[in-house]
Amino acid sequence: MFLRTVARELDLNVVVHSDRIEQAEVPVPDVLSARALAPLPKLLSLAHLHCGPRTVMVFPKGVTWRAERDAALPSWRFSLQTHPSPTQPDAAILVLTDVEPLSS
Q1: CATH number for the domain including 43?
Q2: What contacts 23, CB < 8 A, 6 or more positions away?
Q3: How far apart are CA 82 and CA 62, in angstroms?
Q4: What is the pLDDT of residues 47-78, one digit of tens each?
């Protein structure tokens, strides 16, 4: 509902899908976002199924975002930008690009 409201009020040309990520059948997005879905390692596994090489992933994360990032590093390669959360001190908005699983 929030994303649809923002898109409407900003007159954005976007499609918001509210399906479960495991079951979603969507075209490769330019931007993929998820809120309160899973810790970053699991979230990357789920999101990567739907993304192309140029997809930007935007994930609001709570105060444990640094630990989640560190937990993802053994399995994932990515470029990361962080932005302070406007709603919670020590939380962050993570913007990931060039996301790739590492070979085991």
Answers
A1: 3.40.50.150
A2: none
A3: 12
A4: 888 889 899 999 999 999 999 999 999 999 99
